[in-house]
Amino acid sequence: MSASRRAAGPEATAATRLSPREMLARLIAFDTTSAGSNLALIDFARAYLAEHGIESRLTYDDSRAKANLYASVGPAGPGGVVLSGHTDVVPVAGQPWQSDPFTLTERDGRLYGRGTSDMKSFIALALALVPEMLAAGLKRPLHLALSYDEELGCLGAPRMIADIAANLPKPAIVIVGEPTRLKLGNRHKGCYGFQIDIQGRDGHSSATHRGVNAITHAAAVVGFIEAIAERHRREGPFDRGFDPPYTTLNVGEIAGGSAVNIIARHCRLGWEFRPIPAVDPSRVIAEVETYLAEVLRPRLSARAPEAKAEMWADCVVPPLVPRSDSPAADLVRRLTGANETIGLAFATEAGQFQEIGIDAIVCGPGSIEQAHQPDEFIELSQIAEGEAFLRRLIAWAAA
Ligand SMILES: [Zn+2]
Questions:
Q1: Within a 10 A sphere around the Cβ of 193, how many other Cβ atoms?
Q2: What pLDDT was estimated at residue 6?
């Protein structure tokens, strides 16, 4: 999509201008908890960008209650830098907040509100500086990429990324502005989530030989997954940039059965694994799939023809794999003066951009320690540093 820029004229000055802080206050006021719609925020951003002559491209979820927004400033064509952030936030329910989480509130050099660190400050800075991007006469484009449902497992961004890959000139670099205190995050683990659904055959608990207990078979799957986890813990591979330094597997959900005196007909379990970049995720998945195909399903069907086991992915977030030759890392090093790279404990959308061949790194204001907490805040000094960082980026793109 080309950014059609309006000629500078009297009407151009009528477009809304907000300071980063004013912009952040507007964004915080939209309750974009992942369970609900983010369209009010997206409509606001789209209208604001349109006032500045910038066209937005939206990609929706199936319900059309949520959307990603992608917009480009500067020359049309490939290259340039994507500023990427998720618009959704985690719930505040049950958390003790000292002030309204959806009203930006200053106390002691900090701005409080849900999403201040994770990660509306980065989006607010990018939006607030759009007039400066326009005035700078960019020679390389800067793109804004705002996603939905990141907090549910990076579910939204893939639709936007697929749209970019299929229909738009390819950007060169992505900066995912998750809170790193503007340190240069060049690697994180992936996160792959699955459900396994086991159907057995029910019957009276006194006649177990006539039924197929789905819980018992699910327990065998749990044991198999735990054995893989134990092997990674003991034998690696290891990556000392992470805590813990190995791939983890976790069975986090299980539900099945209906009464203690009934053979359980049904059991569902949810599991995930978080591979270090050196581990090929498809091999972990294949290991579990092979167990289902070669061990579990034959056992089930030998007992009852209708018994079965299915597995499907409900979350796919590839790891961010560090690259020795990374234009994104070089650029951010230049702009921030950071000479160290850090591994991140959390997954981001950066690996999803990397999958279509766009060099991606993670760098944004605020701290992940405040993320998801009651009384989430960002220090005013982090906003100021983030603003200076983006101004240097604009100067680079205009040079
Ligand atoms: Zn985040």
A1: 20
A2: 46
Q: Which residues have CB under 8 Å from 390's CB, separation 6+?
A: 83, 125, 126, 129
pTM, 2 dp: 0.87
Q: Report yes or no: 50 and 151 within 8 Å, Cβ to Cβ.
A: no
Nearest-angstrom CA–CA distance, 227 and 309? 20
Query: What's the CA-to-centroid distance between 241 and ligand 1, angstroms?
Result: 20
Q: Measuring CA to CA, how many Å separate 16 from each of 13, 209, 241? A: 8, 73, 44
Nearest 5°: phi and psi at 309?
A: -140, 130
- C-alpha 337 – ligand 1 centre gap (Å): 23
Q: How far, in Å, from the CA of 87 to the mean position of ligand 1?
A: 9
Which residues, 6+ apart, have CB-to-CB distance to 87 below 8 Å? 27, 32, 38, 41, 42, 120, 123, 146, 147, 148
Length of the chain: 399
Contacts of 379 (CB under 8 A, 6+ apart): 109, 110, 111, 366
What are the residue numbers of the active site?
88, 150
Using omega within 30 degrees of 0 as the cis cutoff, is the peptide bond preceding 133 cis? no
Q: Strand, helix or coil at 171?
A: coil
Contact by Cβ (8 Å): 354, 185: no
Q: What is the pLDDT of residues 154-165, one digit of tens each?
A: 999 999 999 999
